[in-house]
UniProtKB/TrEMBL annotation:
Protein name in the entry: NAD-dependent epimerase/dehydratase family protein
Recorded GO CC terms: cytoplasm
PANTHER family, per database record: NAD(P)-BINDING DOMAIN-CONTAINING PROTEIN-RELATED, PROTEIN YEEZ
GO molecular function: aldehyde dehydrogenase (NAD+) activity
Domain of life: Bacteria
Annotated ranges, domain NAD-dependent epimerase/dehydratase: 3-226
InterPro entries, A to Z: Epimerase_deHydtase (IPR001509), NAD(P)-bd_dom_sf (IPR036291), NAD(P)-dependent_oxidoreduct (IPR051783)
Entry-linked Pfam families: Epimerase (PF01370)
Length: 320
């Protein structure tokens, strides 16, 4: 099989490239000229340079390709460039879909997010859930929802595209939880916020396995939630503490966190600085709860992910 991976140098994309190469597949990777390629060290991937909205680069990248994996995205909460996020996440997805349709690829797997379902208010939902949140919690939330609408539109028009909706992705070189875990292991994480916040968890290699299964078994137009389970922040740190003997970080009272978010948000905007806590991040910690059931992927694709506990143990092994 010859496969194209957009965002090949990213967290998910690089793990996918390695898995495809290990299977003996030929891999093409779309990356920007300025991309950090350190995650692809040792890989044989054929690189095509171009922006995700560059149709000429996409056409070149898709020459002779059987399957396209679209993982490229601008993922960030807090103070973001909303226009840039719209261009990458929405218009970039449109460009990938249109080019894939013209190229006649046999399957396109789109890496979406459980965020497209919006705030479920703690209700555990599956792929049949219809979004009830009328507004959007962030530019990321909005742009990924719009991109998913495009994907579903192209699927209805006959493009063989499958959507996977991962929850929080953990694993080697995780740019989000990885630094937090390293700070915890170094004994420098003394405080944390939002102990009751639920986080869905999936190991990046299990997400990759689901994407590969989707190529083989998923019907065009189908959606699959990819999540092993979830834990509250408090439960997560209690588990990590049990495994390492490092004390659980102290929880900062909610009013103080909200005040900090309100104070740091305008300072960050003034200084073009991403503060550790902002109004948007506070909202995600305290006011929004998305919980999902990933059993459809197990049932229909034969997906067999590691447990939440094993995922966290593997992360500890990597960071140590």
């Amino acid at each position: 099989m010859k496969a194209l991976v957009t965002g090949a140098n990213g967290f998910t994309g690089s793990h996918l490239v390695k898995a495809l190469e290990q299977r003996g597949d030929t891999v093409v990777g779309l990356v920007r000229e300025t991309s950090d390629l350190s995650r692809l060290a040792g890989c044989q991937v054929q690189l095509v340079h171009g922006d995700i909205t560059d149709r000429t680069a996409l056409q070149t990248a898709m020459l002779g390709v059987d399957v396209v994996f679209h993982t490229a995205a601008y993922v960030e909460l807090g103070l973001v460039d909303a226009a840039k996020m719209e261009r990458i996440n929405v218009e970039g997805t449109r460009a990938v879909l249109e080019t894939a349709k013209a190229a006649g690829v046999s399957k396109l797997v789109y890496c979406s997010t459980i965020g497209v379902y919006g705030d479920t208010k703690g209700q555990v939902i599956d792929e049949t859930f219809q979004r009830q949140q009328a507004d959007f919690s962030s530019a990321y939330d909005s742009t990924k929802y719009k991109a998913q609408q495009l994907v579903d539109q192209f699927a209805a028009e006959g493009l063989p595209v499958v959507s996977v909706m991962p929850s929080g992705i953990f694993g080697a070189e995780d740019p989000h939880f990885g630094p937090v875990l390293q700070t915890f292991l170094n004994g420098r994480l003394k405080v944390w916020a939002g102990g009751d916040r639920m986080t869905g968890i999936v190991h990046v290699d299990d997400l990759v396995a689901a994407m590969l299964l989707a190529v083989e078994k998923a019907a065009p137009g189908s959606h699959y939630i990819i999540s092993t389970g979830d834990l509250s922040t408090r439960e997560m740190f209690e588990f990590l503490s049990q495994e390492t003997g490092i004390p659980v970080p102290r929880e900062v009272p909610e009013p103080i966190v909200r005040l900090a978010g309100n104070l740091l948000d305008p300072i960050g905007r003034l200084l073009s600085w991403q503060p550790p806590i902002s109004r948007e991040r506070v909202h995600y910690v305290y006011d929004r709860c998305v919980r999902v059931d990933g059993s459809k992927a197990r049932r229909e694709l034969g997906w067999q992910p590691r447990s939440v506990e094993q995922t966290l143990r593997d992360c500890l092994r990597i960071e140590n």
